[in-house]
TrEMBL record:
Transmembrane segments: none annotated. The keyword Ribonucleoprotein does not apply. This is Phosphatidylinositol glycan anchor biosynthesis, class T. Keywords: Signal. It comes from Gadus morhua. GO terms for biological process: attachment of GPI anchor to protein. Residues 1-22 form the signal peptide. Residues 56-76 have a biased composition (Basic and acidic residues). The lineage of its organism: Eukaryota, Metazoa, Chordata, Craniata, Vertebrata. The keyword Signal applies.
Length: 786
């Protein structure tokens, strides 16, 4: 039994050792490839040894001492290498349990780990901020690059504009050079013709001298005969031509340009002697004045309305449309017939619709439109006045107007008159004035004056750029290169009265020449550019004045005299015409003369005429009224009123609309009918003393209206034209009636005519094809037919 117990204990120990060695095998490390290859199929398993203890006196279970090994060898006898004892196994199990159970970290380690996590978060946050800053910098760089590209595009556009302007300048220079070449050719041809004429005259003089010598030799002079005198030479013609351009910057930012061309000829058109030789004076007008015995002729063509409250007063006023008034000489017997012929001739000269002027729109004023030339004519039966408010001004009116100039549109200021720019403006007016003037203060000799004027206002927004700067090239697409060679004076004036220190605008090139002139009762200062002096053109041989605004828009002007007119009422039967006349003078009252010409189809009720100022009745000191006649003459109303200081005078009159014949309506009757502007003539108090001597050398724009008093000056103001609707029938009704009547006639009369003229006959119906074939077969058979 004891032996059995020993054997069982021995087997138990062996199994326990085998189990422990199996656990050690499971915890061993794998062998490298080189070791496994060297050992062949057998693998050597090395046991993992724990780390050496820090204390040398201590020994682990994995490293038994030499004495223990020897004792085990003696005890175990045949014990194999690598099989541990129980103590080693227990120590190994303890170490395995220590390895399996993780070591709990200390507080310091946890704090270190938290600090590391915080540092990692901070690093990530800083990285994110750096990335955001980088993205922002990239976006800023992209925006800067886009701005640079935009600036480069703007620079390229400006360069393109400059190139286009340079090309235009080059084209203009080429045109000017061509024109100069043509002029030089014409001058050479003229010189050749003059040389040929001189040679011919020399030959004629030589032949005449030879004949005289032969005659003298044949007939010797007597001793008592006086010496023969030379034949009198014809007196040289005295004519003069002047041209001026006045540029006035307006407070609204617009530019007002006024051209003045004056031709004075010492010819007697009113005498019996006919004028045949013309040099500077246009022959077409000279012949008209001579044939129709015209003393004064005033004609204007205007497109647009002059805005007095924004632009002030113009140098030469004119109403919208066409205006014509003429003073005939007292030798004319049939004034109306001569007036009709004159309008037809002027219609052909100026290519306008003046032939539509007849007795229905012509009046004979009794107090207005005094002569502007010499002579105090009191018989107004030789005066005729007419307007066409619907006249459209275009290029065909400008071309004949320019042909009246001595230089045409080839040289001088007339080269700026380009129709494309003139008619692309807010206001445009061209006029021709012919009148006799005095040559000396005593008026011992007279001459005929032709004054051609052209006024134009360029709007700030029509240039297309919106910049507050102007130049001759921007306004007229051309520059000045020379004066008219036939002109004795050629100047350009720029009004700098409101710009004494250069605060409002900047003018370049600057000129040292300044002059003062009294215009419309005020003393104005002007910069002068004399085109007859080469210094005005500079080194570029071209004058292109540039005006650049500095300040904002100025305040609205309040002229001393201003007027308005409008139509009131409702319906198409009756209405009222209101005329407002403003006197903005603070303490001076002055008289005005109002003229209104109303067409006959507006029947005025003169008993409803009322005039009021400051809420009180203002009785006119003079009234002239000529009633109208249907289809013969218009209404004419003239009144002399006294305007109180700083007041508004209102003139009101009622009217009734007439029903016209269907042939008297215009092609567009629903557009309305125009009523011409009213005319207000006044002597306005002057701020400075006026010059009554009209023969002194003064700028042309300040010497048109004669002045007889130093304390006042003459002014003419025009109101707006009126557009009135008249009772208009439905012109589509005749068409409808024609269609209906034609339909009734075609249907009713046509059917009745057919019934009356048509004949009816009864025809037997012919047998059919099958029946014919059957009858043929029946004939062959001898059977009776069907």
């Amino acid at each position: 039994m004891a032996a059995r117990r020993c054997l069982g204990l021995w087997f138990f120990l062996i199994t326990l050792c085998v189990v422990s060695t199996g656990a050690d095998v499971l915890h061993t490390t794998p062998v490298t490839g080189t070791e496994s290859s060297a050992a062949g199929t057998e693998t050597v398993v090395a046991r993992e040894l724990p780390e050496a203890p820090s204390d040398p006196g201590e020994h682990t279970a994995a490293e038994p001492t030499r004495e223990g090994e020897q004792n085990d060898r003696t005890r175990g006898g045949e014990q194999t290498l690598g099989q541990p004892t129980r103590e080693e196994e227990q120590e190994q199990e303890k170490t395995r349990e220590g390895e399996q159970t993780p070591a709990q970290p200390t507080r310091e380690e946890e704090e270190e780990e938290e600090e590391q996590e915080q540092t990692r978060g901070e690093e990530e946050f800083t990285r994110e901020e750096e990335e955001e800053e980088l993205t922002r910098e990239e976006e800023e760089l992209t925006t800067e690059e886009e701005e640079l590209t935009r600036e480069e595009e703007e620079q390229t556009r400006e360069e393109e504009e400059l190139t286009t302007e340079e090309e235009e300048l080059t084209t203009e220079e080429e045109e000017l050079t061509r024109e100069e070449e043509e002029q030089t050719r014409e001058e050479e041809e003229e010189q050749q013709t003059t040389a040929q004429q001189e040679e011919q005259t020399k030959r004629w003089e030589a032949t005449e001298l030879e004949e005289e010598h032969v005659h003298d030799a044949a007939v010797p002079p007597l001793a008592g005969d006086p010496p023969a005198a030379d034949p009198p030479s014809p007196p040289p013609s005295k004519d003069d031509f002047q041209e001026e351009l006045v540029i006035r910057p307006l407070h609204s930012g617009d530019i007002y340009a006024s051209f003045q061309f004056r031709t004075v000829w010492d010819a007697d058109f009113m005498g019996d002697q006919k004028v045949s030789h013309y040099r500077l004076f246009p022959k077409s007008l000279g012949q008209v004045i001579t044939k129709f015995s015209v003393r004064e002729l005033h004609i204007s063509f205007t497109q647009g309305y002059w805005r007095t409250m924004q632009w002030g007063q113009p140098y030469l006023p004119s109403p919208p449309g066409a205006e014509l008034w003429v003073w005939f000489q007292d030798t004319v017997t049939d004034v109306d017939g001569t007036w009709k012929e004159l309008t037809n001739v002027l219609s052909g000269i100026f290519c306008a619709s003046l032939n539509f002027i007849d007795s229905t729109n012509t009046v004979q004023p009794s107090a207005s439109f005094k002569p502007l030339g010499i002579g105090n004519v009191t018989d107004h039966s030789f005066l005729r006045y007419a307007t066409l408010p619907r006249e459209i001004v275009c290029t065909e009116n400008l071309t004949p107007w320019k042909k009246l100039l001595p230089c045409g549109s080839k040289a001088g200021l007339s080269v700026l008159l380009k129709s494309e720019k003139l008619f692309h403006s807010t206001f445009h007016s061209q006029a021709v004035h012919v009148r006799p003037v005095c040559q000396d203060p005593q008026c011992r000799t007279t001459s005929m004056e032709l004054r051609q004027t052209l006024n134009v206002v360029f709007d700030l927004h029509t240039s297309g750029q919106g910049k507050r700067e102007w130049s001759l090239f921007k306004m007229f697409s051309r520059t000045l290169t020379e004066a008219c060679p036939l002109a004795s004076s050629s100047k350009v004036y720029v009004d700098v009265t409101d710009n004494p220190q250069g605060e409002q605008f900047e003018l370049s090139p600057a000129t040292p020449l300044l002059t003062q002139a009294v215009v419309l009762g005020d003393r104005r200062t002007y910069s002068v550019y004399d085109l007859t002096q080469q210094a005005s053109f500079g080194s570029s041989r071209s004058l292109n004045m540039l005006l650049r605004w500095k300040a904002a828009d100025g305040e609205m002007l309040r002229p001393l005299l201003h007027s308005e007119r409008y139509v009131a009422g409702y319906g198409l039967q009756a209405g009222e015409i209101h005329t407002l006349i403003y006197n903005h003078h603070p303490y001076r009252a002055f008289p005005v003369l109002l003229l209104s010409a109303v067409p006959w189809y507006l029947r005025l009720y003169i008993h409803t005429l009322t005039v009021s100022s400051k809420g009180k009745d203002n009785r006119p000191s003079y009234i002239h009224y000529q009633p109208s006649k249907d289809r013969e003459r218009p209404h004419l109303l003239e009144m002399l009123l006294q305007l109180p200081p700083n007041s508004v005078t209102e003139v009101t009159v009622e009217f009734e609309r007439a029903l016209l014949k269907w042939t008297e309506y215009t092609p567009d009757p629903n557009h309305g009918f125009y009523v011409g502007s009213s005319v207000i003539s006044a002597l306005v108090p002057s701020v400075v003393a006026m010059d009554t001597n009209s023969t002194l050398d003064r700028p042309l724009f300040s010497s048109f209206f004669p002045c007889k008093e130093e304390a006042s000056y003459f002014m003419r103001v025009y109101t707006e034209p009126l557009l009135v609707n008249l009772p208009t029938p439905d012109f589509s009704m005749p068409y409808n009636v024609i269609c209906l009547t034609c339909t009734v006639v075609a249907v009713g009369y046509g059917s009745l005519y057919n019934l009356l003229t048509r004949t009816f006959q009864v025809d037997e119906p012919s047998p059919g094809l099958a029946k014919r074939i059957a009858n043929v077969i029946r004939r062959f058979r001898g059977v009776p037919l069907l």
